[in-house]
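[job 0412] stage=complex_fold ligand=2-phosphoglycolic acid status=START
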Amino acid sequence: MPRPLVAGNWKMNGGVAHLQEVEALKDKLAALTSLPACDVAICPPATLLDRLIQMTDTSQIGTGAQDCHTASSGAHTGDIAAAMIKDLGADYVIVGHSERRADHGETSATVKAKAEAGLKEGLTVIVCVGETEATRDAGNAEAFVTAQVQDSLPHGATAETVIIAYEPVWAIGTGRTPTSGDVETMHSAIRTTLANILPTEGGQMRILYGGSVKPGNARELMAVPGVDGALVGGASLKADDFFGIIEAAYC
Ligand code: PGA
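[job 0412] stage=complex_fold status=DONE, emitting structure tokens
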């Protein structure tokens, strides 16, 4: 099994004062007698990324952005290039989160181009996929998600540089989660798709689960065969909860 990743996605939450939570998380991780058996990362709003990187420099906590532009520079007001994220010293970039697909009309082709921009700059790219409730109810979840994987996967992806995050849209921020069986089935379908596209690398690429991961359900979700970690939204905002997830799953 690849080394798991527990990544926090703060979304559009938190100001400078919120970085206290990162100090608290650092203290909790430092107090462990042995390091958790997983990678840990936080993806704050872009406004906090530089400070976060400086704070976490010597810690086990990796850092990432929540989005990047497809282009390396230019006339794109308000956008951020992957090169800028790398320039700060970040490790990861999330692309194709369902909120960006919905709020900004990002297609899988756009997501793929963003992922390729991230790879080109040497960032590890977290590519998000996931079905809506209507798609699941219609019985099309697997076909939909595997098509998203196929269409969003960047050219040049390797097991080291690309991570897939399966996040059912209906589970994000709702407190609802799929059954362990449903998660296992979807992760297995994603694994098969990856292995078909990339026979060597696809078998080793990490596939995270995301959507209402909490300290109370982390152990069960992370124990599902084929789950290589978590992408955590709301529960990553509080050090206690985020540490609780890391601890429940990988300590
Ligand atoms: P949630 O969000 O943990 O708040 O459900 C997950 C995500 O959107 O990555």
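The pocket of 2-phosphoglycolic acid is lined by residues 9, 167, 172-173, 210-213, 231-235 (CB under 6 Å).
[job 0412] exit 0
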